[in-house]
Design goal:
Arc Repressor Mutant, subunit A; 7 helices; mainly alpha; 78% helix
């Protein structure tokens, strides 16, 4: 919201260098999705939603099980959810995550 306001003002002022900086910040902000999840948390959420265990997710992402557990806890906290099932439902309801999940789930079932 603040970046949109800054972009508008910089466009009116024809302040190109400042406009470039706002665009850079917008790209950084765009890396986060609904609920403030990081890119890695979205990856973990997608895999949780396919029914993978923490061990399987750790193997897939080449990280430790403890790190996966930390990501899962962070996802649940940020989204205000209480279970992996609720996180899975959230992932399917929110289109940006859900479309990718369908492709992942379908390719794993083959």
């Amino acid at each position: 919201m603040e970046l949109d306001a800054a972009r508008s003002v910089f466009l009116q002022l024809d302040a190109a260098p400042d406009l470039v900086r706002v665009e850079e910040l917008s790209r950084i902000t765009a890396r986060r999705v609904a609920g403030g999840l990081t890119t890695r948390e979205v990856q973990v959420l997608k895999l949780v939603a396919t029914g993978m265990t923490n061990r399987a997710i750790a193997s897939e992402l080449v990280i430790s099980e403890k790190t996966v557990a930390t990501h899962v806890n962070s996802i649940l906290t940020k989204l205000g959810l209480s279970s992996r099932s609720a996180a899975t439902a959230y992932a399917y309801v929110h289109d940006r995550i859900g479309r990718s999940l369908h492709r992942i789930t379908y390719s794993r079932q083959r």
